[in-house]
Amino acid sequence: MIVSIKNVSKSYGKHKVLENINLEIESGEIFGLLGPSGAGKTTLVRQLVGLESPSEGENYLFGEKMPSLRLIERIGYMAQSDALYTELSAKENLEFFASLFGLKGTHRKKRILEVLQLVDLSDHLNKLVTNYSGGMKRRLSLASALLHEPELLILDEPTVGIDPVLRQSIWSGFYDLKAEGKTLIVTTHVMDEAEKCDRLGLIRDGRLIAVGTPAELKEKTGSASVEEAFLAYGGVQHEN
Amino acid sequence: MRIRALVIRIIRQFLRDKRTLAMMLVAPLLILTMLHLVFNGENYVPKVGFVDAPAVVMEKLDLEDATVKEYDSAKIAKEDALVREIDGYITFNGPIIDKIVLEGSDPTVNGSVMKWIQQATKPLTPSQGNLAVDYLHGSDDMGQFDYFGPVLLGFFAFFFVFIISGISFLRERTSGTLEKLLASPLRKWEIVIGYVLGFGIFTMLQATLIAWYAIYVLGMLMEGSFIYVLLITLMLSMTALTLGTLLSAFANNEFQMIQFIPIIIVPQFFFSGLINLDTISDWLSWLGPITPLYYAAEALRDIMVRGYGWDAIYGNMLMLAGFSALFIFLNILALRKHRAV
Are strands B88-93 and B67-71 parallel, antiparallel or unpaired? Predict the structure, then answer.
């Protein structure tokens, strides 16, 4: 058990964002958090990284309660915003983030080339990030989260704005990471991406409405796709 | 190690952003030059009318440094004064001055006219002899710029560092990179210290350049040691740097950061000694001692105008160091908003 979320609720003033979430994520799986925008996915993963604290309940990572500075090094986090220094080149950005995790010398150089290879940006190493396209920035942001070879990767909408071909190759990268024994938590609101996850948590209006493998979720609701399953669990409400 | 990475990154960003670099280094010089020219411009030459002045009197007067116009009647002189042809006129009752009439709308002109008249009519009044004046500090050819200079020097160093460091840190917040830093093993104090050091390098460069330029190029009065001026300017810039990054926590965008200028920066200017603090209403004058610029201006004047050394300035320097330390501490607290540990 690498992540366990226990009775977590979060509210901002009167507005409830998360309501009594209970979830356990196994080591070595790709876990997808699926739900419409505003459902609370980002709030939940930010709590796992330690950027927010729950109003009620606790989050445990590697058996230790978050937020904890000691755990941060074992997590790779990619936020929804690209969070890059646009005045700097891709290499300079990665050098900076790598140094924050204590990588240096030839090891740092090697890791930078490896992650750039993974996200297919090796040819744009010395280009300033200002001149990058939206998809390239997204990939560089992903690369920066992988630098320190974290055991747990928390990726908030990692493939937004990335074309289907590249999305395919990034997912094959995810499977490679999984094969190395890493755990991935991926938020998404794209249904076909959800199919690629080992297990899914469906989130709606701050509530975790169902958890299971895509096959299980479809079977239980008698649906042909994750999308139908989601709607079946979500009840009659319509998304505006 | 992590701090070093942060410092290197800030330097790299700075060197890429030529325009901001220029703003920090060149803009203060430009403004100081303009102020120098404004304050140390030529003296105003008053235009004075004499109504019915007897020729014997006119001969005795010292009529240099003014444009003198003679009138036959007070009525015409008044008309000329009303259309500002002349700044004022003197009417005579025989050989004695009857009255002085001024156009009166510009206090600076009034002052220089009165000063000139006093000088010019000295021969008419019983002589007091020439009064010898000794100056404890300064001299009779000390200009306004020499007195205001130290304050202006401090103010512009403060202003530009505040804006640039504040907006840089704000950008770090709004672009999401600050969160990324906080999702790394970087400690909160390391972020703040990294910023202080990274920006500190450019701040030091700026402080040296401004002080050197004001003193050696513009020829601002300088009685004390250049090293002390540098030290105070640098300490002041540090408070600007730490205050700028701190206040960026309370701004949601660049525009809101700019809104701090009238609230935080401009009032400091008033209490920095540009205006004599004794003349400021008691309702307000207590604000002076809580602004960093107050201490810096005092110290800079002590060094540059009065030629004092370490003994006179170390108290003010401690205050500036105290402000910086306080702001650094509050900065670290403000980061708790983003990460609890």
Answer: unpaired
